Amino acid sequence: MPATADEHVDVLIIGAGISGIGAAYRLQQECPDHGYAIVEARDRIGGTWDLFRYPGIRSDSDIFTFSYPFKPWPGTQSLAEGADIRNYLEEIAAECGIDRRIRFGHRVTTADWSSTDRQWTVTTVSAAGTQTWTCKFLYACSGYYDYAAGHAPEFPGARDFTGPIVHPQHWPDDLDLTGRRVAVIGSGATAITLVPALARTAAHVTMVQRSPSWIISQPRHDATAERLQRRLPARLAHHINRLRHLALGQTFYRLTRRRPEAARQMLTGPIARRLGPDYTARHFQPSYNPWDQRLCVTPDGDLIKAVQRGDVSVATGRIDRVDADGIRLASGELVPADVIITATGLRMQLLDRIGLSVDGRPVDPEDRAVYRGLMFDGVPNFAIAVGYVNASWTLRADLASRYVCRFLRYLRRHDLAFGYPVRPADLRPSPLLPLASGYIRRASLPVQGSEPPWFYPQNYFVDALRMRFADPRRDMHFEPYDADVDQLGEYSWRPVRANQLHEPRTPDLNGESAR
After folding, report:
1. pTM, two decimal places
2. Number of structural domains the chain divides into
3. Burial class for 357, CB neighbours closer than 10 Å (0-12, 13-18, 19+)
4. How many CB atoms lie within 10 A of CB 310?
């Protein structure tokens, strides 16, 4: 007999951020006969956009592709503020009745699939205690960041520092930087966002980086989008703006990967014209090629302008120690500071510490291969939402949700209880996220293959066509309701051989994998 549960739904979505709200919308539109609920650990819609509250928090992808295709973005700015994105999500949830399906303050702790019962049993913990859910399909839309803590390396002498040391992931509401000297450790997206925002009130801001990151300026205001919105219906204007930014982004990515030297000159040229070639070479010219790590975006070049004005300076080198009054580099240079901000990166936690198991046997994501960028091999009726590394997260998350709906309709149409991907014996594993960024290298992630359907291209146009016309039976095993299945076979526990992992691969113009 199936286990007794407090609540049962056809589909349980984990997370009420941009992936989860989009998944709920797609379920309502494409699978209206499937009941669903969303469990969210936080007390508000937004996910990442509710978690991060540091000054200047914004999207680092253009908002026209970061927003949903079914809900036009109301403004004309290219890069949206975090609070505006959260409000956008709340508005959609209210308009579509999604907010009534969300259980806030419910953190998922365990999820076990029962082949006998043909369903998941999911345990959540809230202020009211422990609750048990059952569902036919489990969809993890909680992203891949660790919400509990960011990456916080220890710096010698940090306890000697006389001022506050703050990680952006836990920004204090009462932190006043007016007239104070601020040192921001890091050169990734968070630091690039923070530094010009802090420079508006601080006496001076120094960005302390071990090595530079690639930076690209993007207009804060999209004049073309504004003209289209004035002259066309909202949905048509939004569609054209999405296609325009998609085409520009994909073309830029392909060209930079094919001609890295030309890309280097294109990225450093505008900076050198403002700051001079020597300063640019020392502080804004990385040793790696563009898109080996994700590019950092500055709206209207705000960071470079702040350096040019003298509000911001950059110190490049290894940190030797933290002194009472600042940061000492290995070169001997002292960066004076009253406040230190450790924008040292994030930690990845793909399933947010959920104890996933199948028929009582734990599932280690690191041992799994990912099918079509969303399903684990050997794990029935389960999917994750993961984005692209070179484009807006929402683009891929929406494709994943639409594929989940196709999968659910296929099960129901053929009276099937469940299905799971079967990894081919000759699968050549490659990294799920083909970037060399530190937060990815530090993470324990599943792998993908090197060819479709076990490889998803970093090309939205190719990916969208494949997902739309994909054969749902390829490399899949299905079981009907009347089959006698007590537990899955030994195949499900054959781990990927990590020592066979291939180097990160980049897609060519056709979206196939290439060195």
Report:
1. 0.92
2. 2
3. middle
4. 9
